[in-house]
């Protein structure tokens, strides 16, 4: 089961996720969360994955989809605090080169710009 | 559950994907796998089950997926079968190609191959069979084999 909370910091929406982003509920929750934020005009999104233990191919697909949706609407999606497992997964799928990945929240927020 | 072979017939639904993953973790753990290897086996089986349920049987409630786990000398062999229309594995696009990096799907087989030592595909006509092999190294059986 995945839990999601979001908060605003200097115009950036930080989404704190915990659990697994996998086919079914986890992927759907991520998709719905990002869609809702975009609908509300919140297009600077920082996904905090510190408490995400596992992502499967479906979850990776949702991350990519969220990224492309935001980029297509002049927004941006960045990732924060990857666990080793998620880090390794993004490395082997070469998505480490696609996503902007941060490990310091304040620096990550600042990197979105004004 | 700690025998040399266990098999399951599961429905074409999401719950089966979770069941397959849990069963893989249990069997591989009993076979002596642990740590990263144990997780890799569970993740590979999850991806194979996703392929079988989603792409193979397309959630058809009339179709089932079959999964078996077998401990063999020096290896763990896992078989995942579906009753779908089959596919040509050679035509699956490379998810690491620059033009495919931002595609939403198409990484399952790549991940299975990454996590396992050997993966074989067989067209059952109808259906597809995947055989996943994880070789025993050190901790899992006392017999040490070198990775490639």
Structure description:
The complex is a heterodimer of chains A (114) and B (148). Chain A is an alpha/beta fold and 114 residues long. Chain A has a single domain (3-110), classed as STAS domain (Transcription Regulator spoIIAA, 2-Layer Sandwich), CATH 3.30.750. Chain A is 40% helix and 32% strand. Chain A is built from four helices and five strands; from the N terminus they run E-E-H-E-H-E-H-E-H. Chain A has a five-stranded mixed β-sheet with strand order 1-2-3-4-5. In chain A, helix 1 (25-39) links the parallel strand 2 and strand 3. The longest helix of chain A has 16 residues, at 57-72. The radius of gyration of chain A is 13 Å and the shape is globular. Chain A starts with a strand and ends with a helix. In chain A, 43% of the residues are buried. Chain B has 148 residues and is α+β, with helices and mostly antiparallel strands. Chain B has a single domain, classed as Histidine kinase-like ATPase, C-terminal domain (Heat Shock Protein 90). Chain B has three helices and five strands; from the N terminus they run βααββαββ. Chain B has helices spanning 14-30, 35-56, 108-115, and strands at residues 5-11, 64-72, 75-81, 118-123, 128-135. Chain B has a five-stranded antiparallel β-sheet, with helices on one face. In chain B, helix 1 (14-30) runs antiparallel to helix 2 (35-56) and helix 2 runs antiparallel to helix 3. The longest helix of chain B has 22 residues, at 35-56. Chain B starts with a strand and ends in a 13-residue tail after the last strand. The A-B interface holds A 22-24, 54, 56-58, 60-62, 64-65, 67-68, 85, 92-95, 98 and B 14, 17-18, 39, 43, 46-47, 50, 54, 95-96, 101-105, 107-108, 110-111, 114.
């Amino acid at each position: 089961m995945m839990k999601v909370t979001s908060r605003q910091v200097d115009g950036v929406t930080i989404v704190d996720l915990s659990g697994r982003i996998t086919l079914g509920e986890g992927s759907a929750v991520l998709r719905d969360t990002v869609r809702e934020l975009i609908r509300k005009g919140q297009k600077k999104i920082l996904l905090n994955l510190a408490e995400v233990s596992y992502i499967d191919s479906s979850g990776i697909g949702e991350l990519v989809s969220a990224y492309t949706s935001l980029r297509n609407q002049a927004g941006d999606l960045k990732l924060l605090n990857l666990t080793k497992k998620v880090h390794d997964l993004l490395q082997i799928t070469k998505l480490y080169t696609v996503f902007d990945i941060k490990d310091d929240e304040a620096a990550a927020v600042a990197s979105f710009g004004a | 559950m700690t025998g040399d072979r266990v098999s399951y017939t599961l429905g074409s639904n999401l719950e089966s994907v979770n069941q397959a993953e849990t069963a893989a973790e249990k069997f591989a753990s009993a076979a002596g796998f642990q740590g990263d290897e144990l997780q890799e086996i569970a993740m590979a089986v999850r991806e194979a089950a996703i392929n079988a349920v989603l792409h193979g049987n397309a959630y058809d409630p009339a179709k089932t997926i079959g999964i078996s786990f077998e401990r063999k000398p020096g290896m763990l062999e896992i078989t995942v079968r579906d009753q779908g229309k089959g596919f040509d594995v050679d035509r699956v696009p490379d998810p690491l190609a620059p033009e495919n990096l931002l595609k939403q799907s198409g990484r399952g087989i790549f991940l299975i191959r990454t996590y396992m030592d050997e993966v074989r595909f067989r067209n059952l006509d109808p259906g597809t069979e995947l055989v996943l092999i994880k070789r025993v190294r050190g901790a899992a059986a006392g017999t040490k084999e070198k990775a490639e």
